[in-house]
Amino acid sequence: MSDYSQGPGWWQASDGKWYPPEQAAGVAPPAAAPWGSTPPAAAPYATPYGAPVQAAPSTNGLAIAALVCGLLGFVTCVSAIAAVILGHMARKQIGESGGQQSGDGMALAGLILGYVVLGLGLAYVVIAIIVAAGSDSALALAAG
Q: φ and ψ at 101, to 5 degrees?
């Protein structure tokens, strides 16, 4: 018996004194809670009925940029090249993401617009060369 705990296993009686573990044999174990044991704590932020939570796929930024550059290609032909490059990069990233990214349609639209603008620009250059070459020969014949 002591006024202070002397180590593990020592217990304090109702008289305020500490007793060694050997003297605890005559003491009854503490009574159980009146309604049984407490239920286990629920997991924080548990979903109802255990349904898995899936995040919505994010839109690939390169796909958006490809679409914007494809539309701007009608104003500035230079951005059509960027639309084609970004569109191919975006489609590759979306395919490798395993469903975590969306935007394949925007990337494809950017690719198509980029190729259309490049095709129209090439046709314009070819027609301009043909017209310029035809007008030089027509001038030479008229002057001659």
A: -125, 150
